[in-house]
Amino acid sequence: MRALLVRLHRWLGLGTAAFLFLAGLTGAVIAWDHELDAALNPSFYRADTAGAPLPALTLANRVEAADPRAQISYMPLSVEPGHTFVVRVEPRLDPKTGEPFALGYNQVAMDPVTGVEQGRRMWGAPSLARLNLIPFLYQLHYTLFLPTKMGIDLGVWTMGVVGMVWLLDGFIAIVLAFPNLKSWRKSLAFRVKRGGYALTFDLHRSGGVWLWGLLIMVALTSISMNLGTQVVRPVVSLFSTLAPDPFRTAAPGPSLTPAETASARTRIAAMAPALGRSEGIAAPPGGLFAMPALGAYGVGYFAAGNDHGDAGLGNPWLVMNARTGEVIARQIPGRGSAGDLFIQAQFPLHSGRIAGLPGRIAMSLMGVAVATLSVTGVLIWLKKARARRKSASKPAREATSVSAEERAAG
């Protein structure tokens, strides 16, 4: 049985090593995506004009007026002092072709006081330019920039399957790390003084043991981040009732026209504070997420600049019928069934934000650890593969030598 587990661990590990190395290093960086992005691109994020900011809806309308091909898909409802007003946009449909316009950008930054555009970019574009670097790494972490074929996002599915293989391999690895009761101490030690292969082996085995619980958690949440709808929610629903996914809940009625989207934005923004209070949400409305195809708007409740959630299970969200303002779905941290709480915890756990700043530091270090485990696993395999080849060739050399001696004697 152990021999089978060794083979499984070897081939599952080798099959996922490159993916996990890449995911580990990019994950270590994007734990600080906002801070690093702002540091690299101050002109995109910093606004220096003194004075009171214009209303958020006014700024959003200016974005759309400046380029009628674009429509707001996400906008903040307030900004931190000294920060730009950053919105996400998506292309409208070209009435002549029925296809989306080619915008060439999906994010716009504006001075909130003057309403002047300070920059635009295609968030997630495959580019190493300073303006695109951090979004590029974020997109690489989750999708590998693989294409979508026949409606299947190959990048998301690839990383999701890697997460499932990694989860299985994690349980195999912990069994192999403790072959018997007498040698358990070896699986926790690091032979630093010996260095070389001994230390490489200990970094892989003992490092994996010390971090095992966190590694399993990251593997599980990796599946949730990529295949939440396809895999995780169906599995969790077998054990616990789940509330509808607020961002995939179809609202009554047809999709919104461009004119309805703009008017609904104003209506929902006006209704959001009272609706939040009626749901017992203390935080103010912080952002609007348009879902015109579903005839709905999502409203996030958070203070300016806290759109990712600094700690805990994240921010509350309400999804509203864009025409009537009726709340049709809700995701309020800490509320719901055990399954709902499990689903709510996935991104905060994966990003480390559930524990605030210490959690993000831990996840950044975990990214480096995952990359290290991947490299040391490959190095161990190479070392043993060379030893196996050498051992296999030794009898052949001996047989050749004996044959030569026999021929000489004859």
From TrEMBL:
The chain crosses the membrane at residues 154-178, 209-228, 361-382. InterPro entries: PepSY-ass_TM. Keywords: Membrane, Transmembrane, Transmembrane helix. It comes from the Bacteria. Residues 389-410 are annotated as: Disordered. The keyword Membrane applies. Pfam families: PepSY_TM. The keyword Metal-binding does not apply. This is PepSY domain-containing protein. It comes from Paraburkholderia caffeinitolerans.
